[in-house]
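Notes for week 9. Today we move from apo structures to complexes. The key idea is that a small molecule is not decoration. When we ask for a structure prediction with NAP present, the ligand SMILES becomes part of the input, just like the chain. The input block below holds both the sequence and the ligand string. Read it once before you look at the output, and try to guess where the molecule might sit.
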Amino acid sequence: MPESTPATARLRRIGELALPPVGLGCAALSGFYGAVKGADGVRVLRQALGAGPALLETGVSPDRATGVVRRALAGRRERTVVVAGDATGDVERACDAWLRELGTGHLDLFYVSRSPAGLEETVGRLGALVAAGKVRHIGLSGVSADQLRRAHRIHPVTALVREYSLVHRDIEAELLPVARSLGIGVIAGCPLGRGLLTGRIRTPEHLRSGDPRRLDPRFRGERLRQSVRLLPLAEEMAAELNVSLSRLALAWLLAQGEDVVVVPSTRNPLHLEMNLAAQHVRLTPEQRAGLERVFTR
Ligand SMILES: NC(=O)c1ccc[n+]([C@@H]2O[C@H](COP(=O)([O-])OP(=O)(O)OC[C@H]3O[C@@H](n4cnc5c(N)ncnc54)[C@H](OP(=O)(O)O)[C@@H]3O)[C@@H](O)[C@H]2O)c1
């Protein structure tokens, strides 16, 4: 199937949330990986939110949300599932900041990645935000399987919002089975391994100076070399399927179950189109197993 296949979203269901399999993460648009040309940011957002039901994952820093996101949402709010996060633990303040920044009355899913006040108290406070109508569903990011069970007893958790990709599969050992047993879905962050699974980063020099990935041990020395050594096998499979490596990597995640959706981030309209098209790639069990033999847990 050619890369330019248009996206017709067949919605997936996570708890009561119906959402498209491929959303847009805003990390790249927020300038995390380098400057974004204003026109590109607008095009990416228009394209991501324009076609129909959309999923927008804004990240954890409201101060990074630009007016571009707010303007893109206006008029499309009803058709967009907005997922926002908090990394401070001050959930009321963070939620209010998102509502203000995005110009919206509620967040469809609000997740926390840190709970300095203690897990139970934080989840109780998230539940209060739901009762107040500011948040529809709650999510968690940096939790263990045990913490997930405990949280779910205090207030129903709709989704885990976690890093999950072919190069980062540790969620599969314990957390994913427990989430499934509780009916909790997964919003897979960094589904392209922060760019590793695009094949464009093979040495640290492929990252511009100042790129935060230069400080990430996964993008240095032997760890990077090890990951890069795995790519040709996946690239071969991608070539057989006539798709890009990134599209194959997203298709593998989507094949993990109907309770998984992905939020790759990009500032490039063509990359967005390629990512959306991943939902049309069907992998056979043999192809999935082949990838899993190469990219072990
Ligand atoms: N780490 C976590 O635990 C976690 C938790 C929750 C949420 N998230 C969320 O996950 C979202 C995505 O994560 P991320 O941006 O760190 O990593 P990612 O989506 O795995 O990778 C993004 C990188 O891939 C490139 N890219 C995207 N599509 C491409 C394509 N088709 N071809 C070539 N290159 C492509 C982007 O560059 P271009 O701009 O050049 O396309 C960007 O450098 C974020 O919004 C983040 O908030 C992460």
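The CA atoms of residues 40 and 188 lie 24 Å apart.
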